[in-house]
Amino acid sequence: MWGSLALTPIALVSRYGFDASSSLVFVLAAAALAPLAFLIGEATENVAFYTGPAIGAFVNASLGNAPELIIALFAIGDGLPEVVRGSITGSVVSTSLLVCGAAMLAGGDGALARRSLLMQLATIVLAVALFCIPAIGGFHGDPERHGLYLLTLPVAGFLLCFYVWLTIANLRVERGKRRAAPEGAWTLRRAVATLAGAASATAVVSELLVGSLQSFGRSLGLSQFFVAAVIVALVGNAAEQGGAIVIARRGDPGLGAQIAVSSATQIAVFVCPAVALLSGLFGRPLPLSFTPVELAAMGGGALVVFALVAGGRSSRTGGLVLIAAYAASVVAFALVGGR
């Protein structure tokens, strides 16, 4: 796994040094994300020894979500609003359902940070409810019209303020809950530096992969919306997927679930409103005019996870239910195919 980190420079050289085909670049970049996810999982677990699971999950989600923000900004610059909204939807759904489910399936029975998880899942539901304000107007007519962006601005501003409050409150709840660092654990400085470096490399590779996604998707006959909601979301969240599953398999499904839900929450209440506000600076305002299937997938997915973690315990059965719910969402995305 350590040796496979060489795939990152190989992917970059193939793209910029040899001008390789889009399909080859896509495969190499996707393969390069796996060892980077492994490295992020290693670093996050070591950070959590010193900070506690809540801060460890927060750091992982913050750095792990950098690719989503970068991908969205590139898509805005290219005039692809449907790709932006689709990738945001897919990221929220995949991290809350697929990644959380995979962590529970890999980790089996274990304690969950019930209060923190329920608070964050309720926040996702709140965000989806607020998205309805500009989204309903986009059900009919032009979903990119300026009036919907004017409705988006107060929603985005409120969500960002709420995110700051939620972060402070969540860290206070989990303050002091630390585990003893075992012999051979990394130093905090090494863990944080490794996490930052791996997340930065993940952002570069993710952007490289997305640059080849449209050509790759067209060669497979996939719609732009499906590519964004499924493929872009999955590769953009490779860090959280790998980190959460690795940590859960090592006997800590609680931290794995915390990473997944923290990531989904940050996408809904930080990445999404931040992208909407920054889009105005690009001269391409992005209304949060999600489609009904997108709103249903995000809100319904959060409610399913809420019901399964309410008991405060992880289980493999619950993990299977979440993965099945994600599969149903993917089928819905395929059938709807965007606007």
List descriptors:
13 helices; two-stranded antiparallel ribbon; A middle domain of Talin 1; 79% helix; 339 residues; globular; mainly alpha
Supply Rg: 19 Å
- The main sheet orders its strands as 1-2
Number of helical segments with 4 or more residues: 13
Order of helices and strands: HHHHHEHHHHHHHEH
Question: Sheet with the most strands?
Answer: 2 strands, antiparallel
Low-confidence residue ranges:
none
CATH homologous superfamily assignment? NCX, central ion-binding region
Question: Pairing-aware structural class of the strands and helices?
Answer: mainly alpha
Tell me the strand percentage band: under 5%
Number of strands: 2
- Helical fraction equals over 70%
The CATH top-level class label: Mainly Alpha
> Tell me, what's the shape?
globular
Mean pLDDT: 86
CATH topology: A middle domain of Talin 1
Concise description?
With 339 residues, this protein is mainly α. Helices cover 79% and strands 1% of the residues.
Would you write up a description of this structure?
This protein has 339 residues and is mainly α. The chain has one domain (3-176, 185-336): A middle domain of Talin 1, CATH 1.20.1420.30. Helix content is 79%, strand content 1%. It has helices at 7-16, 22-51, 53-64, 66-77, 81-107, 114-137, 146-173, 188-220, 224-236, 238-249, 253-281, 292-309, 316-336; strands at 110-111, 313-314. Strands 1-2 form a two-stranded antiparallel sheet. Helix 6 runs parallel beside helix 11 and helix 6 packs antiparallel against helix 12 (292-309). The longest helix has 33 residues, at 188-220. The radius of gyration is 19 Å and the shape is globular. The mean pLDDT is 86.
